[in-house]
Structure formats: structure tokens, C-alpha cells
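Progress note, sequence design subtask.
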């Protein structure tokens, strides 16, 4: 559970499909869902609520290895541009689902979380390049996990909304699916 939260928050800090746990047998191409926009870099992360103004523009997000492996470290590297300074009081709402089951709905203090990537509040406006390593536990149960993370300023302005989906199959193979 901690690794999934870390994945979501790490991707968001660098900026971490969807509601249905089955695949569309009629899909022709990996097209983004309405309101979603893939992040360059080949990761399974998309910008959600993309029609809404967001203070963070993710330029690229790269995950190594891609796809992630159980029991291995996952390195997430991202670049982006923050349009305004983020002060104490900013927060992140994180939802993690396993199929139809919501595993986590929690609000985190963004200023506490940015310390994981050697930043501190206030986070000044400007360009950022961040790398974070997280461990994927070997005991991750098979199934599809969906993460939504929405970060807000203390005044409730949207900093960023990211989403992603990863499926751990019973035989250990991991499959990304951006269009469930």
C-alpha cells in the first residue's frame, strides 16, 4: 500500500484508465479518456481534469523499469514547470482502487510529501527536474490498480491532477492500461 501511495505522490510531485476493471474488447487504439492527456515519456501516467487550469505542467515522466517489476525498485524521473509558488497548507487527495474496491482515499500534506524529493515549502515557481525511487513489494496481489491524485493550493486552486493504471497479472507480468 505504501508503494502505491508513493508512486502516486511521486508522480504528482513531478508533475501519479480507469474506473472499470475490465478491458474493452472493441478498442482500436490507446486513446485518452475525455479530460485526460498522456504525459510524454512512455509512462502509464496521464493528466486528468486536463480541461481545468493547472499550476503544474508535466513535460515528461519516465519510469524505469517500464513496466515496473514486483520486488524491485522503480525509478521515476520527471520534468515540469510550476507556474506559481506553492505555500504551506497545500494538500493532495489520493484515491487508489483495486478493481471496484477503493483501497485508499486519503488527504496528504503536500509540504510534508515534497520533502521526499528534497524540496520544502514554499515551493517556488519555476522549472523542476526530480527523480524518486520507490520499492514495489514482491507481495503485490495480482489485479488492476488505479490511482488518482489531485493536488491543491491552500486556497483550493488545482496544482495538478494525475492518474494512472497498472495491472499485476497472476504470473508476475505487469501490464499498463491507459484505456480500461
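Output:
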Amino acid at each position: 500500500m505504501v508503494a502505491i501511495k508513493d508512486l502516486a505522490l511521486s508522480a504528482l510531485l513531478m508533475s501519479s484508465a480507469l474506473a472499470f476493471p475490465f478491458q474493452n474488447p472493441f478498442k482500436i487504439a490507446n486513446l485518452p479518456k475525455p479530460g485526460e492527456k498522456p504525459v510524454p515519456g512512455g509512462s502509464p501516467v496521464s493528466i486528468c481534469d486536463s480541461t481545468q487550469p493547472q499550476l503544474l505542467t508535466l513535460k515528461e515522466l519516465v519510469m524505469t523499469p517500464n513496466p515496473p517489476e514486483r520486488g524491485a525498485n522503480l525509478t521515476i524521473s520527471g520534468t515540469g514547470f510550476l507556474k506559481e509558488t506553492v505555500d504551506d497548507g497545500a494538500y493532495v487527495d489520493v484515491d487508489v482502487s483495486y478493481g471496484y474496491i477503493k483501497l485508499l482515499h486519503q488527504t496528504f500534506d503536500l509540504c510534508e510529501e515534497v520533502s521526499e524529493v528534497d524540496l520544502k515549502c514554499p515551493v517556488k515557481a519555476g522549472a523542476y527536474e526530480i527523480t524518486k525511487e520507490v520499492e514495489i513489494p514482491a507481495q503485490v496481489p495480482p489485479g488492476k490498480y488505479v490511482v488518482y491524485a489531485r493536488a491543491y493550493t491552500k486556497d483550493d486552486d488545482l496544482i495538478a491532477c494525475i492518474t494512472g493504471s497498472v495491472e499485476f497479472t497472476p504470473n508476475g507480468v505487469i501490464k499498463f492500461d491507459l484505456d480500461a
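The longest strand covers residues 158-168. Work on this subtask will continue into the next period as scheduled.
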